[in-house]
Structure formats: C-alpha cells, structure tokens
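Quick one: Pectinesterase from Daucus carota subsp. sativus, structure tokens please.
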Amino acid sequence: MKTRMVNFLSIFVVLLLPQVNLSLSVGDVSFWCNQTPYPQQCKYHMSYDIPFVSKKQFLTMAQQTALMVVSSSLRFADSLVSRVQHDGTEKSAWRTCLFFYSQAAFRLNRSLDSSLGSTADDVQTWLSAAASNIRACHGGFFDVNVTSDIFPLVMLNNVTELISNCLAVNFGFLRQEGIRREGVIKVLKKDGALMKRADCVVAQDGSGNFRTIREALQAAGRRTRRISDFVIRVKQGVYSEIVEVRQSNIVLIGDGVGKTVVTGNRRVADGFTLYESATFKVSGDGFKAVGMTFENTAGVAAGQAVAMASTADRSVFYRCSFKGYQDTLLAQSNRQFYKNCQIYGTVDFIFGNAAAVFQDCTIHLRKPQPGGGLVVTAQDRNGPHENTGFTIHRGRVMAAPDLAPFPQIKAFLGRPWGDFSRTVYLRSTLDTLVDPAGWLAWGGAPPRRCDTLDYGEFENHGTGASTHRRVKWRGYRVIRDRRTAEAYDVDRLINGKVWLPGTGVPFDADF
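--- reply ---
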C-alpha cells in the first residue's frame, strides 16, 4: 500500500464554499477532490469511476474512504502484536494506538450512520474527534520515545489528511445549516438522570454491593439496556485503583469533593503514555460524575501524570475536583461540560482537543519545581474546521495554598499545543498571579502558530485581568462585543441546550 508520512505541522487550507444549496451541486470526484485541503490524497484513495456526484454524496464517499483506511490501519496495528516488545514502554504505546484507532473508527461510523438523524454539528464533532484520536495514537509513541520498527509501520498512513478533507467539506453544510436544536442527541435525552435511585453502591467497608468501582462497572457491563443511565453511588473513601469506563451512560455519584477520592500515581516517566498514565479514563458516551475527586499523586517532580482523561461525547462533571501537577486533566475529544469543579495543577493541566466548557470552575495553580513554569491550558486544535476549543466561563484563576506565599511566580492562561489552538476566558476572575502578557508561545513551534490560533478574553475582572500588556499575536484578541463572545458559550460550542437538560446538572446556556 502506498502511504505517506503524516505532516503534523501542515497548515490546513481553508475551503471556500459557495453560498448555494451544496447538496444539489454536482461534479465528478476529481472536481470535488480539488476543492479539499489535500486533493492528492483524496484522488489517490478515491479513484471512483463515477461521472457525477453531489457534494453530499462526495462527503459520504470521503467518510467511507477515511473509515476504510482507519479500519485497515487498525487491523494492521493489531497484527503487530508479535513484534511488540513486552516491556512496558513499547507495549503502552501500542495499546494506546489500538485504543485511539478503534475510537476513530467508532466516530467515523457514527458520522455515517443515517439512522441517528445526525446534524452537521454532530458529524463535525465526531470527525474532529476522529482526527484528534489518530494524532493521539501517534503522540503516544512520542510520549514514551519509542523508535522501534513498529513505530514507522503504525505511523505511515495519511488518514488525518483524509479526515481533514471530510471536515472541510462538512463545514460547508454546517455553515449552511447552523446549529440545529435536534439530531442524534434527542434520542438519548432523559429526565433528571442524577435523581435516579442508585443501581448499585460501592463502599470500602462492605456496606454496599461492591468494594471497588471496577467491580461496579463490570456489573454495569452486564445490563441489557445501554441507552438508560446506570447509576453507581460511591461512598466516602479513598479508592486506589486505575479505572476505565468504556460503557455508555454511566453515572458516578460520590459523597463530595475530598470525600470520595479515586487516586493513582502513574506517570509517563515510568513508561506509560499520557493516556495510560491517567488514574481515571472515560470513553463511554453520556458519562456523568458528581461529587468526586480524581487525583494523580505522582508529585510535582514526576513530570507528565494525568488524573482524568475523557474522550466521551456528552460527558459531564459536576462538583468534582481534579488534582495533579503537569497534565492533570486531559479533555481529549468530543463535547464535555464541567460545572462547579476545582482543577489543580502546574503546567498544561487542562489540555486536549475536546469542545469543553468549564463553567463556574476554580483553577488552582500549585507551586512548581524550582525554575518551573505555570501554564493553565494547552488546547490541541489542529485544523480550521475542527469545532473544538476550551471556554472558561465565570471561572477563577488563583494560587493554590502552596503557591500563595510566592507572589513573584507568575502563570499564563494558556499556550498553543495545536496549530489552531482555541481557548477563551469569559467573565472570569483572574488573580494577581496571571502574567501581564497573559499567554505563552509553544517552544519550538513555528511562529505562524501565534497567527492561526484563536485566543480571547471577554469582560474578565480581577487584579490579573488587565489586557494592556497582553501578547500582540494576530490570533489573540480582546473580545469587545457580546455577539462575538456568544460563539464560545455552552449553547454554541457544545450544543448544550440540546443535551444538558436531560442530565439534571444545572447550567447557563448563554450569557
């Protein structure tokens, strides 16, 4: 199979789409390929002998092609098991790659499933997730510095370009359609999910059905109806276990922050990928957590060590806390909502490429290592058509107790992990520890990244909120009008008016 190495730092070409009914426009496959960001890859994989297709038909064909290549790559990666060294490092990278390729295939399948009645926004979300997941597979090898012979074998495909083409084409339909208040999520709406009686109870003292969260999840896996919530009450205690939630519609209800604690101490330096270092991982859609603490206790000198990693669509965290240092919270992909949460860390401790809103959350910056820096976010949007980004709405950025005695240590609101990184702070309180420049460039990245990113601040307040000395990047702006700011609210960024009412979690959809 002819393949090309993915160029992670390519700048995506913006597709110019006419203001007409796109589904009625027709042309041959070559014609449509020439309008995508990666026409050569498109033509190579889509050599269909079809004289005329509509743009909608072409999109479907492009999605099917991307799915075919992802599925083929997944089978090939799985076949490499005998060549994978059995030490933790290479094995971790390989497992992570299999997981993210399977997630990419799942999202591409959903984007093609006409029975779901998906909106263009749904499809754009799942295509963005698929692209993010492929990059996460590749990133896993870099995490643990794997350079063995399986590395190029897994890396050599151009599927990210194929998915980027799908994103560019679907973006035209999204722009034409706008955000509809219906679609796939309406099938999944429920009444007051958090008010349901618990299906099982976890208690370390033996007073519940199970002593560990993992045992409760195994019970949830045996249920027959996956569309309804399975509610797990987790009583007060410190649960030292590595947990992964792959089932859909799981609800965890703890006894409160600092009372129900899930803890682990894995770190990348010990041979785990970023994703596998996480204490708690969620990939099952519709996940909800209330009154829980998720922490990674590897420590300030441990380097990268994740407490929570979520790839789940429509995941919700309410009155939860996330504690770590570097890379505490990985909001990897899909639509996520955080309400009244507390997040602790030092460097890039809110990171990933989800479309995520953090509403009424407190961000606590902890004391770094001597000479170390402090950066809140590292958002990883890599293309202009990915409908992803982070919004901190009515949050507070402040020093944690261990940092408070050191006012000379300053922090940055974010730095661009991806070429089109997107992060905004809306009506938030920024304390004195925020550096006057506000934002930090990514070391070693091309200077153009500061032009293509999308960073903004709107009506923030506090002693660190002055924008007079902020960075002068083309991609940064002080948002002056409410209408511009509304593009980043709960309703528009994560389509929250559609699916959040059914969760039972309070939220403000807009300003």
